[in-house]
Amino acid sequence: MYDNWEDLEKSIINCKKCNLYTNRTNIVFGQGNKNADIMFIGEGPGADEDRQGMPFVGKAGKLMNTAFEGLGINREEVYIANIVKCRPPNNRTPESDEATACLDYLRNQVILVKPKIIVLLGSTALKNILGNEHSITASRGKWIEKKGIYYMPTWHPAALLKDENKKIEFWRDLKAVVERYETIKN
Ligand code: URA
User: Which of 12, 16, 96, 105 has the most CB atoms at less than 10 Å from its CB?
Assistant: First the structure.
């Protein structure tokens, strides 16, 4: 574990801990306020993210931005990262060995950011952070408190592109995040 961003970022530059490095254009490390109270964790970079080196800049990210704007969440004030930092081929779900290899980086990011709230975007984020016993269908929209951090599991924004009905729940879950944030921010 590193106690500063510079060393952590340096440690990942040539990462070959799993096979995903073979196809990457860019490592998608994370983006946003490094002292954020709210952190978002997705699954892994897609094609646009791989090309630009930033999380959630493609279609799913644009949808997330729209929700952010509607709810008054400033994207620059939160921190956004993924379970894996290199793009899985054809956007497949990361294998468990890939996620495990990458998780120490994310844990280190969480330690440095010290968020009060973590939004888990989809099943991969939920299972890798809180355990395989959780299912996104059963857990979404319900707060889980662990070691002083409040976790809100919700749909992955890409799921909203396939199922319009999920948009309402996603919106509701992010609204709950904003409301909790308002009560704990000071
Ligand atoms: N999907 C994710 O899970 N993460 C991204 O950064 C983009 C799309």
Answer: 105
The rounded distance, in Å, linking the Cα atoms of 111 and 122 is: 22
The type of residue at 45 is: P
Task: Find the mean pLDDT for residues 84-105.
Answer: 98
Angle in degrees, CA 161, 31, 85, rounded to 5: 75
- Give yes or no for residue 94 CB within 6 A of ligand 1: no
CATH of the domain at 167: 3.40.470.10
Q: How far apart are CA 38 and CA 34, in angstroms?
A: 10
Helix H or strand E segment including 39: strand 38-42
* Confidence (pLDDT) at 30: 98
Tell whether ligand 1 has an atom less than 6 A from the beta carbon of residue 42.
yes
**pTM of the entire predicted model:** 0.98
Return the ligand 1 atom nearest residue 55 CA: 6
- The domain total for the chain is 1
Tell the residue number behind the tokens 């497949």, with chain if given: 92
Distance 182 CA to ligand 1 centre (A): 26
| Domain span including residue 32 | 5-185
Find the 186 Cα to ligand 1 centroid distance in Å. Answer: 30
